[in-house]
Design brief:
5-stranded mixed β-sheet; about 40% helix; Alpha-Beta Plaits; about 400 residues; alpha+beta; globular
Length: about 400
């Protein structure tokens, strides 16, 4: 993703428009190829060397901000190897050896010879003295891509960076799209734990996702979650996105499928947090009376409203499934709304799991939940990932109550 200083946008009245690039532009393809060549041939080179080489390459381009942005995205795909030893101990060893050499009169003819001979005589590897400096990290690998894909990522990153400064993101996608794609879309919503309200309106699904500017804390992390989610929207044949971007002032950003944004992500439906995968695995091992579906899609409520539970549990012997929705650290308002819907009967037999991190954030919420009758029979607390025994117990109660 780009940093704020690398954003390239233009203002048109009350609108803000990303300055997208042509991904088939020969000059930009050549620039991207040059940057990727530096990365590919840089395995084993230091971070400082690679940054200097890429900076020299970017400086030759007429639009240095654009070139620096492309460099940033290429370098984000690098993995560096840090030293396994302790350079502080090596420096201490060298200083002690230097003092010993001075006392014993073992001084080379010149300071240059002294600096060159002493480390090797002390058994200190080349470059080991300052291996703890970030610039001395060595490139281990790069997640490679083509020049065109790098330029496509640049266009996408312009939008993703702007989304870090939004209060809410409004989306429209077709309701009749490929079911597999929509399940993947729902999976990404859950994976990124976004605050979303959704409604089906005829052939269109309208969603409003709270943006980072709407939160009082954890807004940076949530902003990254929102930005990371966005590319999957561009997989739909038709889509529309709109939001108000808060930079120096407020400007409206409006995009649709004609923007030419490309999502290259594959295996979209496989995105699940590690703790959720652990829960699913343990539940399947320990419970044979229920079939767990960890990609349950959505539930449609009265008036076309939609919710996106995390799990569905289907009785092996047949019958209606029971759904489970998890609420994390920034889901306080969403949790209270969901409880109100459950108490009113608009939603039946929905299990609710609440991350204890949410209670730390909202001290009043703990008392409300302890007094809530619906949560007392349908809810539980968890830390890191849901407890299998808690969920199994609630499922058994629901089965007996039917």
């Amino acid at each position: 993703m780009l940093t704020r200083d690398l954003l390239r946008v233009r203002l048109a009245g009350t609108y803000i428009k990303p300055r997208f690039i042509r991904t088939d532009d020969p000059e930009l393809r050549e620039l991207a190829d040059s940057i990727l060549k530096i990365c590919r041939e840089g395995i084993g080179r230091t971070r400082e060397y690679l940054e200097n080489a890429a900076a020299s390459c970017a400086a030759l381009h007429k639009d240095t901000k654009l070139a620096k942005g492309i460099v940033k995205l290429a370098f984000d795909r690098m993995t560096y190897e840090t030293t396994s030893g302790d350079p502080r101990e090596l420096r201490k060893k060298l200083f002690l050896e230097s003092a010993r050499a001075i006392r014993e009169g073992r001084l080379p003819e010149s300071p240059m010879d002294f600096r060159g001979a002493l480390p090797s005589a002390s058994g200190i590897p080349e470059g080991g003295l300052y291996a703890d400096l970030p610039g001395n990290d060595k490139l281990l690998s790069i997640r490679d891509l083509t020049a065109r894909e790098l330029l496509e990522r640049y266009n996408m990153s312009l939008v993703q960076t702007l989304l870090l400064f939004t209060e809410k993101l409004e989306l429209e996608i077709p309701a009749s799209e490929d079911p597999q794609l929509f399940r993947a879309f729902c999976s990404r919503l859950r994976f990124h734990r976004l605050l979303v309200s959704a409604r089906r309106d005829g052939k269109t699904i309208r969603l409003v996702i709270d943006g980072p500017a709407s939160l009082f804390e954890n807004s940076t992390k949530y902003g990254l979650q929102t930005a990371s989610f966005f590319p999957v929207v561009c997989r739909f044949s038709k889509w529309k996105a709109a939001c108000t971007v808060k930079l120096k002032d407020q400007r409206r950003l409006v995009l649709d499928e004609s923007s030419g944004l490309v999502c290259r992500q594959t295996n979209l439906a496989s995105y699940r947090p590690e703790e959720i995968r652990m829960f699913a695995e343990l539940f399947r091992q320990e419970n044979k009376d229920w079939i767990l579906d960890d990609e349950p899609g959505f539930l449609t409520l009265e008036g076309g409203r939609m919710i996106f539970p995390d799990f569905a549990f289907h009785p092996v012997q047949g019958g209606e499934p029971v759904f489970l929705e998890l609420f994390h650290r920034w889901h306080a308002s969403q949790l209270e709304n969901r409880l109100a819907e459950c108490r009113s009967g608009r939603i039946r037999d929905l299990l609710l799991g609440v991350d204890r991190a949410l209670l730390k954030k909202d001290g009043v919420l703990s008392g409300k939940l302890s007094e809530d009758g619906y949560f007392g029979t349908h809810g539980f607390f968890f830390r890191d990932f849901p407890g299998v025994k808690n969920v199994a117990g609630l499922l058994e109660e629901r089965k007996n109550a039917r």
